[in-house]
Every structure is written in C-alpha cells, then in structure tokens.
From TrEMBL:
Signal peptide: none annotated. Coiled coil: none annotated. The chain crosses the membrane at residues 20-40, 47-66, 97-117, 123-140, 147-168, 188-216, 228-253, 259-277. InterPro entries: ABC_BtuC-like (IPR037294), ABC_TroCD (IPR001626). It is a multi-pass membrane protein. This is Metal ABC transporter permease. It is found in: Cell membrane; Membrane. It comes from Planosporangium thailandense. Its main location: membrane. Belongs to the ABC-3 integral membrane protein family. It comes from the Bacteria. Keywords: Membrane, Transmembrane, Transmembrane helix, Transport.
C-alpha cells in the first residue's frame, strides 16, 4: 500500500510527519553542507572532509562502546580532531601529509572501537553502527529534526558572518595576513564549522557518503561561476535541491535508500556542471575562431 501510494503521488507523501521531519533536517543540513563544501573546494581542503567523515564514525563507535549516546562521541571527537589538524598545520590549514596521517590513525582507532562495540554491546543496539554509516533521515523524530535544523542554521549563520575575511584568506593567505586578517583564527573557526557540519550530515547521508554532499555541490558551483559569494549560494542551492529530489525519489521508489538517492542527484549535478562548462568553452572558442 505504501509503495503504490508513493508511486502514484510522491509529493503527497511529504505530508506525513516522518517525511516532514526528514525534509526539515535535510534542508538545513544541505544548506550548511553547501556553504561549507564550497569553501572546502576553494581552500583545497576536500581531503579534510574525507578524514572528518571517518572521524565521525569512529567517534560514534567510541561513544557506543562505552555506553554513551553516539551523537556525543560523534560531535566531540570530530571537532577535537579538526582542531588538532589545524594546530599541526600552517596557520590552521593542515596539508595532505597531516591529514593522511590523522586519517590512517583514525581508521585504526575506528577498527579498535568497532571490535569493542561488536563484542560487548552489539546485541543490545546492533542497528546503531549501521545508522551512523548510512544515515537515518527517515527515522528522525520531531525533537531531533528541530535540533538538527537549529544547529545547521547556526552553522550557516556563522559561515555567512566570516565569509568575506575567510574568502580573502582562502584566495591569498599571505596578503590577508599582511592586511591584518586573523588567518589562523579563521582557519580554526572554519575547521570547527566543517566538523560540526560533517557530524550533522551523518543523519542525512551517513558517514560513508558525507563527502559527496560536501564536495559535489561545491565542485559544481566552482565550475559554474568564478564569483565566490555567488558560488556559495549556488552550492547551497544545489545541495538543498539534491536533498529534495533525493527524498522524493526515495518516496517514489521505497527500495531506493535516501542517502544513495541524494548523493546520486548531487553527483549528477556535478557532472552537469562539467558538461555545461565544457559546452560554454567550446562556444567561446567557436565564436573567437569565426569573429
């Protein structure tokens, strides 16, 4: 019955409370991921987001292994590791060597906590690890959806507040520092926002697929416009559209996991941006040749 309803009227299914909660949380998280994701692309720190996604999973497993709420470990460890990487990097901007080292260590630590969790507590809460890995956006209740939306909105507001100096520092770090811009402080602030966004996005896409929601919209926006502020808005718009279309597709085809649907749409958006950019370049070359 649910399947036939979804296929007949996928938009109408959004009137159900669980769908409203998913839409609220998903929209807010997508907006934050779009804003932060573009800055990750601009600052060449996409690998940082990949590392933080694994930190999120390890943090959740650590909390579960000692009997705490997974979200506590998820947020705490993700933010702490992000700040730690910033401290090791030049002006709070870790390079690939630092990130790779942290990545490997976190994966090893995650393996340890996974072993502890599965041997001591999996019988009582076996679905928790899978939820962190793949997300549970349709399982959010009203209270959790509201909290998620508030945190994501706060991240969006913080990004917009520091956007101009952060963009300046991202494009030319040396000149920004010479002009008195607090480059290191901005670096720490951005890493914190990236960590919180990564932790929040586990509920939407899961730890394994977070990178797609952060990188694909940001990468598409960077290809479509060279204006940073416009690109930030475009990236957020693409991320939100990916969530809306992905959720609708998941309603229409209940066997389709929402996280997979969302990431598929985001990836298609990035591929579309590549095609659009190449088409535009060919048109410019054609006009130049025939002018």
């Amino acid at each position: 019955m649910t399947t036939s309803l979804a296929l007949a009227d996928p938009i109408g299914v959004l009137t159900h409370p669980f769908a409203q909660h998913a839409l609220l949380a998903g929209t807010a998280v997508a907006a934050a991921a779009g804003l932060v994701g573009y800055l990750l692309v601009l600052r060449a720190q996409v690998f940082t987001a990949d590392a933080l996604s694994h930190v999120a999973f390890t943090g959740a497993l650590a909390a579960l292994a000692i009997g705490l709420d997974a979200r506590l470990g998820l947020f705490a460890l993700t933010v702490l590791v992000a700040l730690g990487m910033g401290a090791l990097g030049h002006r709070a901007r870790p390079d690939d060597v630092i990130i790779g080292g942290v990545f490997a260590w976190i994966l090893g630590l995650g393996t340890f906590f996974l072993t502890v969790y599965t041997t001591t507590r999996s019988a009582g809460n076996g679905a928790a690890g899978v939820t962190v890995l793949f997300g549970s956006i349709f399982g959010l209740d009203a209270a959790r959806a509201d909290v998620t939306a508030v945190i994501a909105a706060a991240v969006c507001a913080a990004v917009l507040v520091i956007a101009r100096p952060l963009l300046f520092a991202s494009l030319d770090q040396a000149v920004a520092a010479a002009r008195g811009v607090p480059v290191r402080l901005l670096g720490y602030a951005f890493l914190t926002l990236a960590a919180v966004t990564t932790a929040e996005a586990t509920q939407v896409t899961g730890a394994l697929l977070i990178l797609g929601l952060l990188a694909a919209p940001g990468g598409a926006a960077a290809r479509l416009t060279a204006r940073p502020l416009r690109a930030m808005g475009l990236s957020a718009g693409i991320a939100v559209a990916s969530v809306w279309i992905g959720l609708t597709a998941s309603y229409a085809v209940p066997a389709l996991p929402p996280s997979f649907a969302i990431l598929t749409v985001a990836t298609l958006g990035y591929l579309g941006a590549i095609i659009a950019t190449r088409t535009r370049r060919r048109k410019v070359k054609f006009r130049l040749r025939h002018s």
